[in-house]
Structure formats: structure tokens, C-alpha cells
Specification:
Length: about 850
């Protein structure tokens, strides 16, 4: 705020906001806060009220500063006898000079009078400063000789009423004179009355217009009110203007009826806090090659219903940026009752942020043609005849793409058609590309349009949007390179996600709840892929329908099904099948999908396919006894037991079909698992003869196939004839991996091998769980006089190891002169002694 200083010595200074002196400044004194009535300031005559100090040539009582920003004729407080008299509320009171802060230099004062004013506490800051103790005002600091680089100094003002009295019929000349004079002097033109004009006023470069004290009414048909033509550094602040409205025509001719028409190469234009109503054409019309235009915090209200017809009329906008305009912004505005809220054609660097666009009588909330570098963010858009937001590449002549577009954080409700539409409406090489649509909340009028609709878009991310009550939640046609992810779609009239002739698409992590509200069973799906779609990935989506109206959770109806990946999806609540495919085509990948439908999980699953994971997997405690099941369906047993099945597979389709169990022995006597063994070299019932444990100091090996998973705790065997002369700490049993690495071993076995009978020798450290179907080797090493005899089977070396070669023998010998188990197995040779060695 400009300030007054009263130093101990020297002159009183008036400073600008940045601290520089207000050299040559001129101010005026008023009696009211509206700065209309000049203050009555009287001379003092020997301590009594004298004559009224006259007005200056401008009809005001003025104060000037010298070339250094000082008040002339400096004086300080004396004895209080020096005073002026000021009328306040009808009463004239003295103002003594014994206050700390003082002001001198009233113009046109008779030199014979002692004329001074005391008590000034503030200068202006766009409004009047107040005289302490009284209501006298100082305002309108004339800065024609002052550095105006600091825009906070907005004190200089030219009231329109100073240039004449409004006549109520056509005040256009009066307004034009005030605007021109103020612009020439570098000050504000202040509209301080209700002005009626017929025609346009021109706003020159440097003009600043404040309309907070008055209003402008336009009476001419199809006429602009304020015209900014090839002008720069223009401000319209708090201007209130009203148009005819009845001069509306549904063509481009209506653009002539604009509140503000910015044309040519205009630059740096600010429309701030204005209120424009009933202008048939445009609130703010940005044409030519205008740039750096900002429309902020303003209210733009069109002529509305009865004049603009719903849907049919597309002319009449709150703000328009015409082809070749650039760097314009609409921020924080309230726009309503037009055919379209904000409109443009072939522009660059456009921002539409934080506006309230509502009750669009004609068509769209926002409708933009080809635009490069576009941000549409944080707007509330409701009750539009058609789209909430429409960005369209139409048949214009500028030849630019729609490129680098961000649409985020908007709330769109009750749109007559799509909530957001991005479309390429022309053929040829121009593209809609590099688009981001995120974090929008959309609820359309239902069957009228989709939440988000993309047509001909190349490269887009559509994520984290919440869409409710639309025709399709998300629809993409003839698009390339899309990511559709993490959207929440609910209560949709038809499909959740619809892809038509679209390629290179990821549909990932979306939640689709209750599609198919229309209940048209022929064509309502959670995710629908149709036309020549290719390279589509459908991953991690959840689709459900509690209302029982969705026919399929997923429907693949594309000739390129072989390029489609479907995995990790949860598709339930379908009235028909959880998913439907084309059985004549392969699927690139189908894995880990949970499917549910009244008729069945999948219709037309390909008979030849390349998949990862079973296509039809379920869990139960028994094979199905009802329902229709296709061949190849699998039910996993949730209560497996020793000797019981791991699951069941449908081998013949039907109701319920023919099911066969798998993964278990049919009889407990059909292998080692029936004896609660992890595995054995020979089924116990076939180990019926004695075999020798080969030669002292040589490993006697038997390969064991593990028939159950889990840890290995002990080695089981039977001694049929005791060994003699066995050497302590040189008799061992160990377990080796198929690769020949020692996994674990028992303690010394010289005592166990010296007596007959069934033996169970614990491993010193149990071996960690080994997978089902793993092969290991059990190795027995002895040293002594006579070899122990073990139970085994009669076979020659040829039959014991038929079809096998080292190192894959079932029974083998390895090493020589060993007294301890080696860390790795030595070279094997075939054994003729097939012994029974088992693991438990």
C-alpha cells in the first residue's frame, strides 16, 4: 500500500508500493467512501471557520507532490493553532495541525490563509484512503509522471461522469471519451453510472476499465460492446454489462454480439471479475492471432432457454478462442445458458481450469477443435444438452493435430450425451494423440451417451476415473495404443468397457459393477471386444452383476483372438456364461481367471489353444453332480487325504458330464504311498529275497522316486542276515540328490547292520521338503568282515537297470575303500543287487 512518512526533518514523502517516491503525483479529497462527493475543506481565520477552499479545474480539491515525491511547503506541528475545517455528516469541525502525521500542499489556496490538513493515515490502494478522525477522502493518485511498473498502484481514476452526464439513451461517446482519456493518461476509466450504449466502444492499448460502480447495457442488435483490436496490456475489471439476447441468430453472425471482442494481434488482455449477461453471441470472443488472454473469476450468462434451442443450436458461447489464437485461459468462471460454455478452433496453449459450467441450453459444456497443449482441469460441468467435454479434430484448414491433452479432475453430471468425447472426425494423416484422461467423476443422463468415448485416438492413458449411470462406461473405436486402467464403472446401461477395431490396448485393473441396466440380453457385457481388435491385454479386472442382467462378463468377438491375453480376471454374475470366445481361434494367453455364469464358466473355449494355466478350474470336495460342464473342466479337491484323489477332470461333456479322478493311487496297496512312505526303491510287497550289500568300502545305491512332498526324516530297510566284524564309524546311510549332492545322513550304522530285522534309521538332520516326483539316491556304506544281507528283489543287472545309463541307474555301486560318505557321488556302475531302501 502506498504510504506517507513524517520524518524528523526534511520533507514528507509519498512512496509507491515498491518504495520509490511518487514524484509529481496528484490526489483528490472526497467526503464519502464512494469517492463521488468532493470534500468540503475550509480556511481557518483566527481559529474560526473561514471561506470554503475552491475546487480545482477538474471540479475536485486536489493535493500535489513535488518532483521528488515530497509535499511542498513542509512544516511540522506547532502549537495546535493551525487548522483547517472539514464538513463531516453535515457538521463542520476543525482539524488541528497537532497530529503526528500531516499533509500540506492544497492547490489553488489563497496565499493569505494558513491552510493545512492534518490527520492523513492512509493513501489509496485502488480505493480511497481515509482522513483520521473524519470521513474526508484522498484517491485517484495521478501517476502520469510516476513509474507505473508496479501494478498494485491502481489509484489513478477517471470517472465516466466527469466527462458528462449519462443521457439514458446512448452513452457510447461518453464511455469512449473516458476510456480513451484514462488510457492516454495511464489511469483507470471508472464506470460510475448506469450507461446505455448503442454500438461498440474501442479499448486501446494500456486501457484499464473498472466497472464496479456502474453498469453498461447494450441496445444495438448484433453489436459488440467492448472491442480490443490490436491492443495490448488491457484490463477489464469488475465490468458489468448486459446484452439484448433477443438478437440471437443460429449462425456465426451472432459472434458480432459479444460483450468483449478481442481481435487482431492483441496481447496481454485480462478480463477479471466481470459479469456479462444475455449477450447473444459470446461473453468473451478471442479472435485473430490474439495471445495471452485471461478470463478469470467472471460470470458469463447467455440468453438461455426460449432463445437458444436445445441440441439444435450450436452458436452462442461463454468464451470462444478462434483459429490461430493462442495462450488463452479461462479460470474460475461461472458460465451458463449458452449453446456451449467454452469453444475453440485450432488453437495452442489453452487452459480451462476451475470453472463452473452449467445449464448449457444448446450442446456442450466445453467444445474444442484441434488444440495443441491443452489442459482441462478441475471444472464442474452439469446439465449440458450434449457432451460435457468434447475435443474434436474436425475439417478445419489450419492443419494441426490434437496433441498433448490433459483432462483431469473434472466433475461432469447430467450430460445429454457423452461425459467426455475425444474424436477424429476427418480422414487423413492428422491425429488425436498423447492424451491423458484421469481422475474425472462422470455421471451422464444414462442411455444418451458414454462416460468416456474415444474415436481415432493414438496414444492415451485413461485411468482412475469414476463413471456412473452411462450407456457404456468406456468406449474406444479405431484407436491405437491405449491404457485403460484402475477405473471404477457402475450402473451402466449396456457395457462396462467396449473396444471396437482398436489395437495395442491394456485393459487393466478396472472394477465394473452392475452393467446391463437396459437388460437387453443380446448385447450387454462387462467387457466387449469386437471388430478388428488386436493385441489386447485384459488383466486383473473385476466384473460383477448383482442384478442378474449381464449376459457375459467378457465377450471376445474379434477375428484376432489369437493376439488377446486374458489373465487374472474375476468375472461373475453373468446370466449366460462368465466368458464367451470364438472356439475356432486360439488365445494368446488364458490364465488364472475366475469365471461364473448361470449357464457355465466359458462358452466356446478354443479346442486348440496355447495357454498358461488351466482354462476351467474350480474347487470342491467332490466331483460335480449337477450343472452342465465342458470337457476339460477341472475340479481340485479341497480336502485331499492319503490315498485320495488330488482332483477330478471332466472327460465327457454333459450334465453333469463324466468325471475321472487324478493324482492318487486307486488302492492303498498300489505303491509305497500306501505304506505311508515318501518313496521306496521297490514296492514293499515285492521285496521278498535277500541281496548282498556289495563290497566293503563301496557305496550301495538305490534310486527312490518321492511319491509325496514333505520333509524326509528317516531311512527304512530290512536286514535279512547280519553283517559281522563291522567297523564302528565306518558304516553309514545317506541321501543324495539326483545331481549327486549329499542332502543328509544317519548316525553310525555298525550296530543296526549287525542284527537282523526291520530297521528305521533317523537322519541326523531331517531333509527339507522335497517336491512330489523328485528322485533321490539312498546310499549304504559298510566296512567289516562279512557283508550284511538286505531284503530286495531278484533281478540281473540288465533287468534292474533296463533302458538306463549312468548316472541314472536305479541300483548302482560307486567309489571304493570309502570309510565315510563323500560330499558328492563318485562315478556309478550298474548293480546286480536291487535292494529295498525306503524313505519316510
Amino acid at each position: 500500500m502506498p504510504s506517507l512518512l513524517f520524518p524528523d526533518s526534511g520533507a514528507r514523502l509519498v512512496l509507491l508500493p515498491k518504495g520509490q517516491p511518487a514524484a509529481g503525483a496528484l490526489g483528490y479529497l472526497y467526503a464519502d467512501e464512494d469517492c463521488i462527493t468532493p470534500a468540503e475543506v475550509y480556511y481557518d481565520v483566527s481559529g474560526t471557520k473561514g471561506p470554503l477552499i475552491p475546487l480545482d479545474t477538474h471540479g475536485r480539491r486536489s493535493v500535489t507532490l513535488d518532483g521528488w515525491g515530497r509535499q511542498p511547503n513542509y512544516w511540522g506541528p506547532e502549537d495546535g493553532a493551525t487548522r483547517l475545517w472539514i464538513r463531516v455528516n453535515g457538521v463542520v469541525n476543525p482539524v488541528d495541525a497537532d497530529y503526528k502525521w500531516q499533509l500540506d500542499g492544497l492547490r489553488d489556496i489563497d496565499a493569505g490563509y494558513d491552510s493545512r490538513i492534518s490527520g492523513l493515515t492512509e493513501t489509496v490502494d485502488g480505493q480511497a484512503g481515509q482522513l483520521a478522525e473524519h470521513a474526508g477522502q484522498i484517491t485517484d493518485l495521478d501517476t502520469s509522471k510516476v513509474d507505473m511498473s508496479d501494478r498494485r498502484l491502481q489509484a489513478t481514476g477517471y470517472l465516466v461522469s466527469q466527462f458528462g452526464t449519462p443521457n439514458g439513451s446512448n452513452d457510447r461517446t461518453l464511455l469512449q471519451t473516458a476510456i480513451s482519456a484514462a488510457a492516454e493518461a495511464g489511469g483507470w476509466a471508472i464506470i460510475d453510472a448506469h450507461l446505455t450504449i448503442s454500438g461498440s466502444v474501442t479499448v486501446p492499448s494500456g486501457a484499464r476499465i473498472d466497472g464496479s460502480r456502474g453498469r453498461v447495457t447494450q441496445t444495438a442488435n448484433l453489436s459488440n460492446t467492448f472491442v480490443v483490436a490490436n491492443a495490448s496490456d488491457v484490463v477489464l475489471r469488475n465490468v458489468r454489462a448486459t446484452g439484448l439476447g433477443t438478437d440471437y441468430v443460429p449462425s456465426s453472425a451472432v459472434f458480432a454480439a459479444s460483450a468483449v471482442n478481442i481481435t487482431g494481434a492483441s496481447r496481454n488482455v485480462l478480463i477479471d471479475g466481470c459479469d456479462f449477461r444475455s449477450f447473444a453471441g459470446v461473453g468473451v470472443n478471442i479472435g485473430g492471432t490474439a495471445a495471452d488472454v485471461r478470463v478469470v473469476n467472471s460470470r458469463l450468462q447467455g440468453p438461455g432457454p426460449g432463445i437458444i434451442q436445445p441440441v439444435d443450436h450450436n452458436y452462442g458461447m461463454g468464451v470462444v478462442g478462434h483459429q490461430n489464437s493462442s495462450a488463452w485461459a479461462v479460470i474460475g468462471c461461472d458460465i451458463s445458458h449458452y449453446a456451449q460454455g467454452v469453444n475453440s478452433g485450432d488453437c495452442t496453449d489453452v487452459r480451462i481450469i476451475g470453472n463452473y459450467l452449467h445449464d448449457m441450453t444448446g450442446q456442450h459444456g466445453i467444445y474444442l477443435d484441434a488444440t495443441i497443449n491443452l489442459v482441462i482441469a478441475d471444472n464442474i460441468i452439469r446439465d449440458t444438452g450434449l457432451q460435457g467435454i468434447k475435443v474434436q479434430l474436425a475439417n478445419t484448414t489450419n492443419g494441426i493435430d490434437i496433441d498433448h491433452v490433459t483432462i483431469t479432475g473434472n466433475v461432469i453430471t447430467a450430460s445429454g450425451s457423452h461425459g467426455i468425447l475425444l474424436t477424429k472426425a476427418i480422414s487423413g494423416g492428422r491425429q488425436v494423440r498423447r492424451v491423458t484422461v484421469t481422475g474425472n467423476s462422470i455421471s451422464t443422463a444414462g442411455a444418451g451417451g458414454d462416460g468416456i468415448n474415444l474415436i481415432g485416438v493414438h496414444g492415451a492413458v485413461v485411468s482412475s476415473n469414476v463413471i456412473h449411470n452411462a450407456r457404456h462406461g468406456l468406449s474406444a473405436t479405431d484407436c491405437v495404443g491405449l491404457t485403460i486402467g484402475l477405473n471404477r464403472l457402475s450402473s451402466l446401461q449396456q457395457n462396462g468397457v467396449l473396444l471396437t477395431a482398436t489395437s495395442d490396448v491394456d485393459v487393466v485393473g478396472n472394477r465394473i459393477t452392475d452393467p446391463a441396466v437396459d437388460d437387453i440380453l443380446a448385447g450387454e457385457f462387462g467387457i466387449f471386444v469386437t471388430g478388428a481388435c488386436s493385441n489386447v491385454k485384459i488383466d486383473g479386472n473385476t466384473v460383477s452383476d448383482a442384478n442378474g442382467r449381464m449376459r457375459y462378463g467378457l465377450y471376445l468377438n474379434t477375428p484376432n483372438q489369437g493376439t488377446v491375453v486374458v489373465r487374472n480376471n474375476d468375472l461373475t454374475g453373468a446370466t449366460d456364461h462368465g466368458a464367451r470366445l470364438d472356439n475356432a481361434q486360439d488365445v494368446k494367453e488364458w490364465s488364472n481367471n475366475v469365471l461364473g455364469g448361470t449357464t457355465g464358466p466359458v462358452l466356446n473355449f478354443p479346442t486348440t489353444r496355447t495357454i498358461k494355466g488351466p482354462p476351467l478350474e474350480y474347487t470342491a470336495t467332490a466331483p460335480p453332480s449337477s450343472g452342465t460342464w465342458p470337457r476339460g473342466a477341472v475340479v481340485w479337491n479341497t480336502t485331499p487325504s492319503l490315498g485320495g484323489p488330488v482332483g477330478w477332470v471332466c472327460t465327457t461333456a454333459g450334465t453333469p458330464g463324466v468325471w475321472s479322478q487324478f493324482g492318487a493311487r486307486q488302492s492303498v496297496w498300489n505303491g509305497p504311498a500306501g505304506n505311508a512312505l515318501a518313496g521306496a526303491s521297490i514296492d514293499p510287497m515285492w521285496a521278498n529275497i535277500s541281496v548282498g550289500a556289495t563290497t566293503a568300502g563301496v557305496l550301495h545305491l538305490a534310486r527312490v522316486l518321492l511319491e509325496r512332498g514333505g520333509p524326509i526324516n528317516s531311512v527304512e530297510f530290512v536286514v535279512t542276515a547280519a553283517g559281522t566284524g563291522l567297523v564302528a564309524d565306518q558304516c553309514w546311510i545317506g541321501v543324495y540328490s539326483a545331481a549327486g549332492d549329499l542332502l543328509g545322513q544317519t548316525a553310525d550304522q555298525s550296530v543296526a547292520l549287525a542284527s537282523g530285522g526291520q530297521k528305521s534309521s533317523a537322519l541326523t538332520v531331517p531333509i527339507a521338503s522335497q517336491p512330489f516326483g523328485t528322485s533321490v539316491y539312498v546310499a549304504l556304506l559298510w566296512n567289516g568282515s562279512v557283508a550284511p544281507q538286505l531284503r530286495g528283489a531278484a533281478a540281473t543287472a540288465t533287468f534292474a537297470n533296463v533302458g538306463l545309463t549312468a548316472p541314472n541307474f536305479r541300483w548302482a555301486n560307486a567309489g571304493s575303500e570309502l570309510t565315510a560318505l563323500p560330499a558328492t557321488l563318485p562315478t556309478m556302475t550298474a548293480s546286480t543287487q536291487p535292494s529295498y531302501l525306503a524313505l519316510k
